[in-house]
Amino acid sequence: MAKKRKDPDKEDEDKPFKMPKFDEEAFVKKERKNIKATFIAFFFACLVALISFGFWALMSGESSNLRWPLVLVFGIFTASFIRYIYLRLGLDVSHFTKKNWFTTYAIYIFVWLIVLIVLVNPPFYDDETPKVELVVLPGMQEPGGDILIIAKITDNTGMDKNDIILTIDDVAIPAADFEFFDNVFRYTYPSPDNVTDDESHDIKLIATDSSGHKTEKIGNFVYSNDTITLAEPDVGEAVDANDDIRFRVNTYVHRVYYTVDDGPEINASKKTDSDTDYETFPEYEGWPADLNAEVNVTVYAEIIHYFENHIADGDFVKFSNIIQDNDVYNFTIKDDDDIGEKASEAITVPKGRFVGAPGFEAIVFIVALLAVVLIFKYKKKDRRN
Fold first, then answer.
1. Are residues 115 and 67 in the same domain?
2. Can you say whether residue 200 is alpha, beta or left, with left for phi > 0 and alpha for psi between -120 and 50 degrees?
3. Distance (Å, rounded) from C-alpha 290 to C-alpha 331?
4. Residue 342 contacts by C-beta under 8 Å, 6 or more apart in sequence?
5. pTM (2 decimals)?
């Protein structure tokens, strides 16, 4: 009779399951080593951050643009000394897996970066001068018009109105006459009386922070009767719907428009082959259909500015100023049924925009590097499993 063959899988199922013996002493010893390694990495990161801060302070001035890249390279390179420090302190890391080493280096990098960022900013350190963006609206104005002087002034320690000095033609403007709110400086310069010829004025804006760091910006503006002129046709001519009317604006603006006998605004389009000329036609709505009528045309120009990321009440803050031509141009309407029948062209004007804050490329690089390492690590683990 044949001997019955035993099934080894069934024998294993019949055997009772025994819990493996837990070596508590070895576990505690291992965890103590891991905690000690973590503390060493932490304090070493703080030490390297202090050294990095010293390099940061030494590289102020002309070499300040290289500080982040050089300090970042130094911090990452110094991480290689952690293994040597463990050996010198007699810490047994023979049980360290790739996961342990990854955790150690991650703790070092993040602690070093956080401590360094704290150290290079107030109240511990400040070598940044105030950032000033000075804008004059417009650069050339018709006599009788105002000049709007604005500036965005920011500093890492904050700015006070009394630390801002504005001079025009070396004459200081009293602080009570200008505004400074939400990091924006604003002053309206009224037109001088009896401007008979081109008249230039110089601006100097000085901002000083609480650490004594100073930023100076200069600019200028001009008053001129030639800011806006009529290029063609001659004043008093008779015009029909298709006659080209051109205005010349001798300063940078964003929009040129006009009114006919104080009617609605009509946009003038910038000519593609000119930096100064804007054209329009009597066919646009706003021109009266009264045949042989005499009309008076007044021309305006608008200049607009938005400071990046400057938002109030949920929207970008618009700053603008208007140039009004002091001359009024007279034309006679010809016998033409197409006059005043077409809508004027829409003009594209600037809009506020949000720009990401610079200076965090290093953080993004480190986070991206860690993410890549983690992805490859877990992909390799999945393949092994």
1. yes
2. beta
3. 12
4. 281, 283, 284, 285
5. 0.73
